[in-house]
Amino acid sequence: MSFGYITRRFRFCASHRYWVSGWDEEQNQAVFGSRTSKYGHGHNYTLDVTLKGDVNPITGMVINLSEVKKIIGAVVSRFDHAFLNVDLPYFHKIQPTAENVARIFWQLIEPDLPEGVFLHRVRLYTTESVFAEYFGSEDEAVFSKRFVFSATHRLNSDKLKDEENRIVYGKCNNKHGHGHNYAVIVSVRKPIDSVTGMTIPLKVLEEKVRNFLKTELQGKRLDMEVPYFSDKPATSENLIAFIHAGLEQELGPFLYRIKLKETDNNFFETGELFDE
């Protein structure tokens, strides 16, 4: 027998509100912004549930997908078209943040799994660019946001001769440079705050990352305007190392993972693998 992982995707629509009853309106607004409206705001949620276990030598499966749909679908149906704060008892005392919703899904799904099948990860997207992950650690979750910046570069190494550079880098060695719309996914892993329900407020993460990207990279010719590349090629491997070092100063030891998308076909990662 061999060990395997499978992921099943589910979708549901729901609304929720962020509000700490012990805070005044000003404090709630400062932390949650427009998400404090008493009428709530909504999402088309995407839920990815990853299971793990031994592959059955007879069926060739970790678990039959029809059983997965039955078990998890029954849980998802409770959330679909609900106002989470009001309609579901799980959120009467905790904030229905992406981190907490992912954790509740874990708690509801795990007891109904058959023997030998285990949860590996629950990933919940609130938008295409914002998602949270829960791995079963009682108080920890991962929160991620996708950002975009534009820059140009030329791939060239001072340690290679001109002809060698052309052979190694091909079109990317064009002395006039070329550009990309880079996408970078920044992930933070830390305990879920018992009051806010967040690992890090979205507005805080956005402020720190956008400020770094705007100051250091946005609209720049990397190999000519960013000092970091004065002694090394402006490859995406070196670029993601530069981003990681810069954001580590902003986010500290809670920076968990960075994924850099150069084109639709090329991805680069630091930290834990994205495991997509």
How would you portray this structure in words?
With 276 residues, the chain is α+β, with helices and mostly antiparallel strands. It folds into 2 domains: 136 residues, Tetrahydropterin Synthase, Chain A, CATH 3.30.479; 132 residues, Tetrahydropterin Synthase, Chain A. It is built from 8 helices and 9 strands. It has a 9-stranded mixed beta sheet with strand order 3-1-2-4-5-6-7-8-9. Strand 5 and strand 6 form a beta hairpin. It is globular. 31% of the residues are buried. The model has no long low-confidence stretch (mean pLDDT 95).
How do the strands and helices of this protein lay out in sequence?
Blueprint: E1 3-16, H1 25-32, E2 41-54, H2 65-79, E3 82-83, H3 84-87, H4 98-109, E4 117-125, E5 130-134, E6 140-153, H5 162-169, E7 178-191, H6 202-216, H7 222-225, H8 236-251, E8 255-261, E9 267-271
Parallel strand pairs: 1-3
Antiparallel strand pairs: 1-2, 2-4, 4-5, 5-6, 6-7, 7-8, 8-9
Helix pairs in contact: 6-8
Number of strands: 9
**Largest beta sheet, briefly?**
9 strands, mixed
**Tell me, what's the shape?**
globular
Instruction: Indicate the CATH topology of the largest domain.
Output: Tetrahydropterin Synthase, Chain A
What's this, in brief?
The chain has 276 residues and is α+β, with helices and mostly antiparallel strands. It has eight helices and nine strands.
